[in-house]
Amino acid sequence: MLGPVILAASRSDRMRRLISAAPVTKQVVDRFIPGETVDDVLPIIQELTGKGLELTMDVVGEDITTPEQAAAARDAYLELIDRLKPLGLGTRAEMSVKLSMFGQALPGGHELALANVRPVVEAAAGIGTTVTLDAEDHTTLDSMFAIHDELRKDFPQTGCVIQSYLFRTEEDARRLAANGSRVRLVKGAYKEPAEVAYQQKHEIDKAYVRILRTLMEGEGYPMIGSHDPRLITIAQELAHRAGRKLDEYEFQMLYGIRGDEHLRLAAEGHRMRVYTAYGTDWYGYFMRRLAEKPANLRFFARSMVSKG
Fold it and tell me: What is the pTM of this model?
């Protein structure tokens, strides 16, 4: 049950300072976040796409406190898109965005986030790719889905993320599957109260399968966000039962986790997309990766002991 503790630490300024200052932290963070700038990650993009993989790029950072910071986040994505253009990768390199980075939590945040994300979605479409709106904690989701609906009027390829640990998600999935959305399904990586979310792994996993069946049988494009071998096998079976071809759904996994599995799925003809984050404000992202999987925490702990 360390996950909730780690998620609480992800919001702690004291823990941020302590972990950021640890000498070993950077080499461990590098496992999950391959760079701080576009120049750092462009070689990674070219290397992974050269191996038959696809990517979704995330400029990390969530603690936005001013409209100026939100505008800077927008501009960071526009720079990324500008640098991707000459590579001609199209949908092989898309973007994932957190609306909190675009000012969603600020006064007038819904309108501000929509105004900031729209030019990013438009620029992505201009180079033949798209944007997926990441899910955050449950209090932000109504705004996220409303922005998703608004963007799809002009950019129907815009995707969104749903989380199986939330009670509401089965209904959200039915609506999204019916209207043909691109939907990434994940288990969820935020600390949510028992009033709105399953707390036990087996309950979350069962909900994941129910929701994935809805997506596979629907009209949209499912994106399976999981590293769980059992869920990956189930996803393949559900896709087969639904009569989906290999290019009618995709798998998504995080950079730095199960890299051999990325290559295996791609070699079998599956679309395999690697969620690749970069940037300087890495702390919250890194802590959620530790919370999601005990093996990640053990890896970090061993590194602290051996190098500290």
Answer: 0.86
